[in-house]
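Hi R.,

Here are the chain sequences for the assembly we discussed:
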Amino acid sequence: MSESSPTTSTTSDASIRAEGLVKQFKDGPRAVDGIDLEVAPGEIYGFLGPNGAGKSTTVLMLTTLLPITDGRASVGGFDVATQGSHVRATIGAALQEAALDPNLTAVEHMRLQTALQGIAKADRKRLGDDLIERVGLSDAADRKAGTYSGGMRRRLDLALSLVHRPRILFLDEPTTGLDPQSRTALWEEVARLAREDGTTIFLTTQYLEEADQLADRVGIIDGGKIVAEGTPAALKSEIGLPAVEILPADPGDHERVIDVLRANCSYDESQQTGNGTVSGRLREGTGLTEIVRALDAAGLKVANLAVHAPTLDDVFLAKTGRKLEGAGDDEEQDEHDHDGHHH
Amino acid sequence: MSQPRRFTETALILAWRNLHNFYTSPALIIPALLFPLFFFTAFAGGLSNVENVPGFDFPNGYTAFQFGFVLMQSAAFGGVFTGFGIARDFESGFSRRIMLATPHRTAMLAGYAISSFVRAVVVGAMLFAIALAVGMDYSGGVLDTVGLVALALGVNMLALLFASGVAFRFRTIQAGPLMQTPVFMVLFLTPVYVPQALLHGWIESVAAVNPLTFVIESGRSFIAGVPEELLLAFGFGAVAALVLAIWSLTGLRKAEQAGG
Amino acid sequence: MNRPSTFDQTREVARRSVLATIRQPAQWAPALIFPLFLVAVNSGGLNAATKIPGFPTDSYLTFALAIPFMQAGIFSLLNAGTDLARDIEDGFLDRMALTPISRSALLTGELAGVVVQGFMFGAIFLAVGLAAGADFESGAVGVLLLLALASAITLALGCVGIFVAARIGSSEAVQGLFPLFFMFLFFSSMAMPRPLIEQDWFRAVATANPISYLIEGVRGLFISGVDGEQLALAFGICAAITVIFMFGATRALSARLGR
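And here is the predicted structure of the full complex:
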């Protein structure tokens, strides 16, 4: 190994830092197109974007699994390109499609992982059992991973990535395909890791809610570029004030309600859902009270009136002109029942 | 932990995992045990009349003659099947876990090699036992047997190095035929059914220059207890091992470049 | 809308089956190349066997040319079965089942590609064999009989593949038949005439193995001319396999499609 010692680390105290990171596949797309980012120690950074945006490619480069085409990156103070083995010793990673061997049990996976990570022989068994318990798999510890549900697979994958107590953890779409309950359980564990152990977490996701709930800061990636970055609150406030939604009691009043909104809000034709509800975004200085008064003054009766704070989806829409939610979420349920159609 | 010790540990734990998979999944172990047995019974049983052909000069009879081929064939296929395992690990993403966790990625190859060796020994031992049980006339002494085992393990390693090179480059189980077909062809372009002197037509010329011919004939000579063509067989093995090791390691480098 | 005739339906499914076969060289190319490679290797490797007293010909190539016909049959079994199983797995069959097609038309059509392949391969194997110096003792009538038998063999084995696919509905299960059928092939009179097999148990297995008679039917046309009894046996076995497994496949498909 010709790698230099950890003293040649980068100047900043960032856990993860990338400058002008590029990945150009041979005969393929520029999957990552000049990304700059910095993640502070102990921070949970959410990398949000639709399928094919370049999230996984970025993670593969930062975890040394894919060579960088251009730019620089350091993880835990080590250069990703030249100090690969130091980087790998510092990080843990649970990559997409929990890479488990269907023939091994959780205990056997732990045995393999602890040995690969060079954990002292005497500690392996105890450490493995502890981690299995921590992710709530003790009851299934001796079952083959091939029999696990999606949520169990992700939990075991997470536990395996924690074997060597990494300071920095990469989670690539950790909850894709999980049911809401498993998702919440995994969120809690991730949040606990950051809170109690001070682990830096780099998490990619295509779920707004996940980034919103979990991440201290969010980077939105689209087409290989970061299009927005900041805390969820800051990003949302960039969009502006809450939106108001009004459903007129008499559908015939639709146009008149639009006139009221035009006068008091920023109304955008293209943002209408077309289901009878009319919506507009509040302006600085205009509150809900003003809208209600204006509706009264016009003699309009309202069936429903609601106020919505901006979401990260609004941020994504504003930055890319497309909606994120559902972009890569088209799993179909195939429920053919051959006995179902007798003649 | 020291670097060499870490390398050994990594290789051993990976070998354990591969063997564990092999011995606990019937879909893997049954064909691995049955196929050589099947070839052996079909060739040795169906063609035994060939020993009556004028000029068939192998002193220990047709069963022993065929055992010499089938042993090498099963060793070669053990290596190829290990290559399948590597390709499957890449396809499932399991290799990424290994590549992230281990500082020595060549230890990965060593782990596969160890498990391939163990498999070859188990399958070969079973074949040996059955051949003796059905009355194979075996004249080899202890040294001859050691030589025969060394040859078989060498063939196993060559096939593994070749197949792993393919697996590292394609990283999908769909590359299976690319690992299997060349090995199969090289194997069958040797004196499979009759001694080299009785070959006829184009196969005679091809077998004469196929280096594996020396290996098979040399293996048979160990069985007869009169070792022959050793220098050619082991010399070829050494050269081929060097070339194929480069093929495999450059493949591993390519796999790293592609991100596992 | 008029209900389409069974003939029309069969023809359309058959067209798809033939096109699908032609357009997937990865499926049929090995079935062509692999057997030819083996016959080339074995005819050189085992030519010495013709010196065994009582061996029916002095050219092992002529003797071994029957084997590719069987191997092509096994490949057709795999291909026909895999195609149908994939149609079941990806829902294509359900789509067809929603049309007013009869299930026998569906199955017959699915087999058309296989039969065409059997016919073409038979012609290629014969041409390559003759070019390489093999004897063919049964003349022009023999050529027609050979091609008919080649088609019958692929049809019969194709029905086995279709039966397994219709019954189990998984392409993996169909692929799993490969070793089994190779076993049938190896423990037949493939490499040695039955009377010359020395080991009693092996001769008994080969005699009980229907594949032996298919091989001998093809081989007889090359080695000894038109032998009515031998050919009747070969065609009869093909017919029996076809009828039994076609019936089984139709029933399995009925259960699957619920009609």
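The first helix of chain B runs from residue 3 to 24. Chain B has one domain: 3-257.

Let me know if anything looks off.

Best,
T.
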